[in-house]
Amino acid sequence: MKKRILKNIEWGILICTILLIVIGLVSLYSATYESEQQEFKKQLLWLAISIPAMILIICINYEVIAKISPIFYGILLILLTGVLFTESVNGASSWFSIGFFSFQPSEFAKIFVILTFSVVITKIQERGREEINRPTRLLICLAVIAVPVLLIIKQPDYGTALAFLVATIFILFSAGINKKYIICTILAIIIIAPLLYFFVLPEHAKSRIDVFLNPNLDPRGAGYNIIQSKLAVGSGQLFGMGILKGNQTQLGFLYPKTTDFIFAVIGEEMGFVVTAGIVIVYVILITKAIYIAKTAKDDLGSYISMGIAGIFLFHMVENIGMTIGLLPITGVPLPFVSYGGSSLLTNLILISLLLNISGRRQKAIFIE
């Protein structure tokens, strides 16, 4: 059985992940070179912690993990509530800090919200695939997403909340949701978006949207980061200025260069060739995740894989888009590349779930 799992695993997913981690470590080393490199060292520590966690998750059948996921879902709802009462960092209450150790519950919530949401849909569809299109059943499913999303918005962390919404769309689409719901949702977004901007969004969120539309509106304030990021990416040209040689990176003009704008560091020091390569690697990874969803042995595996694909797609598009000025800044990290222990561990667990599902695909029966 173990041989079948190993033969059937989508190893391309793991190769893409390793490539992104290596690029991330190189860029982090360069970005922290003028300091004590605490972030680089912590990233290595989190990577060491993540590897055994990945191996453990791959060895346990994903169906077993999914069955116990509602327990962890409940625990994370408590943590997401508790984190609202912690001290604000950069305007957001998103972290628990214990000494030198800190973690972000909203990152780990991605794992168990996707798992629990997928379990709920499969339970509903046991009576028939069309059950998901019954309004009462659909509302039950959406409630699983709505509760953590509202808590995350309260922090506030709009970027992570949007990641959950994209994952939800991916899962519901693969579950066969009726097109009328999709059309109604699009119309609702078109109508509600202006109202949210004028009457709901806080001033700092409005400022980010305004600066996105016109960065020169406040070049020394809200528009400073994006202007410096675009300068960094542009100055890298084709092959970059070289590791440890980026002007914006090494002279401290780029901020925060280890998290939100790590892609700008890569663009400046490694150039268009490497940044384009990163985009290609992400596209391959997401495409393979969708392929795993198509070939999964059951609907549960398919929904989990699609949810993970949605998370990675949103993070890749949003982070790179905001770095080059195509999307508003939301503070979304670049998976496997940006600094962040909670983010790295969460993303590697998501990868291990993809490997788990791919290893137990139905086609394994025909291997020997």
- Approximate shape: globular
- Cα radius of gyration in angstroms: 21 Å
Low-confidence stretches: 364-368
Enumerate how many helices there are, as a single number.
14
Topology as a string of helices (H) and strands (E): HHHHEEHHHHHHHHHH
Strand order of the largest sheet: 1-2
Query: What percent of residues are in strands?
Result: under 5%
Q: What kind of sheet is the major sheet?
A: 2 strands, antiparallel
Taken together, the total number of domains comes to 1
Average predicted confidence as pLDDT: 90
How far do the termini sit from each other? 11 Å
Describe this structure in words.
The longest helix is centred in the last third of the chain and has 34 residues, at 262-295. A hairpin with a 2-residue loop joins strand 1 (96-98) and strand 2. Helix content is 70%, strand content 2%. The protein is built from 14 helices and 2 strands, in the order ααααββαααααααααα. The chain has one domain (2-366). The chain has helices at 2-8, 11-31, 38-59, 62-82, 105-124, 135-154, 158-174, 179-200, 203-213, 224-236, 247-250, 262-295, 299-323, 341-359, and strands at 96-98, 101-103. The chain is globular and about 60 Å long. By secondary structure, the chain is mostly helical. A two-stranded antiparallel ribbon has the order 1-2.
Record the SSE blueprint:
Elements (H helix, E strand, L loop, with lengths): L1 H7 L2 H21 L6 H22 L2 H21 L13 E3 L2 E3 L1 H20 L10 H20 L3 H17 L4 H22 L2 H11 L10 H13 L10 H4 L11 H34 L3 H25 L17 H19 L9
Antiparallel strand pairs: 1-2
